[in-house]
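Sanity check

After download, print the first record. It should look like this:
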Amino acid sequence: MITPSITTGAGTELGSPRRSRADGSARTLLQEVTVERMASPVFQISDRLREMIFDGKLPPGVRLPSTRELSDQMNVDSSSVHRAMSILVKEGLIVRTPYVGTFVADQAPSRLERLAFYEGVQSAHSLSAFRLALLEEIMRLGHEQGFVVEVFNDTRPNAEAELTPPQDLERKVRGRHVQGVVSPSLSPERYQWVSGLSVPFATVSTLQDKNSLNWDRRELAELAARCLAQRGCRKMGMVSALLAHPYPGANSYQLGLYHGFLRGAQEADLEVNPARLAGVPTPNFGLSHTELQSFGFEAFNRMWDSLSETDRPDGLFIYPDAIISGVLMAISMRNIRVPEKLKLVIHQNSEIPVFCPFAADRLVVKVADAAGALVNHIRNGLLNRPTEDRVLPVSLEFSGERPLPS
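Expected structure tokens:
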């Protein structure tokens, strides 16, 4: 029989004493469990034990009291305790060994069963098209490969979120409820606490760290410059949401497009006029995804207006796909004929549609490649294997006939 708000303590009479082999700390902690009349005792017990495991109060390896002990201690039917413990067994939080006892699971499984998708944005509506596509692809992989994806949308203020992990994520990592964490991007500050979690993690970020996977921006821009040169362009330009000019202290990721574009032009024996390169002014220049289209529109117009008619580019590389619609609007408003007067190479994620009414060559990357690489990196971490190649592939799709090598 279940009575309202009964908390069993050391002085409660539980009938004749029964010898127990359970850990004393576990027995003492579980005396705190209160079973309320109005709610199902099964879920009350499983929820409370799960919380204790996530909080580290019941650490891995601790032996729990028997079903009969717990039913006497909580004054509930033994079947309720058994069903509650069965829920935790299915979740992988506790293990039962016949004739030995019940223990808190002492290690994360090497098989990926639950994956955390962490996104540090202020609201779900702030997710960009790339982030949403990446989440969709990872959830598709989970459905195909048999693991669950849990989304953690961190809406805390940046000052707090950049110092510590969300409590719910930290509890689930500590309790082995998730075996890995992936994120579409991380600031350097958040990268610090994520790397301190006790499970493998992976992110789409710079190429300097073993847990970061990305496309090589230098390779992208170099391919674009080569393509424009093969199309016969001699005055190549670029509009980018990254740096398009040298900047003191900028890293290789921020300047990857710039250096790659220069290298591609140099291979074709062409000089690049810095005035034809439009990008952000500083490495920490903030652009939300809602501002990218207007940025592309304004950046192209500034570049075009700053040049004389004879100095304006005859070929243009546009990166990333999120600014393309703004650049194309500016081109259309100026009645610039494409591809007769201006040839284009644009960046595109294959899963994210980009409407371009002009003939344009495309540097195509796949969100599915990023999703697969992130999940593979987590699996490698669970098996203590290194990820050999962290550079994601890119392909060049030509409009019309493929240009002949120059």
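If your output differs, re-run the checksum step. Summary of this record's structure: The CA atoms of residues 325 and 355 lie 8 Å apart.
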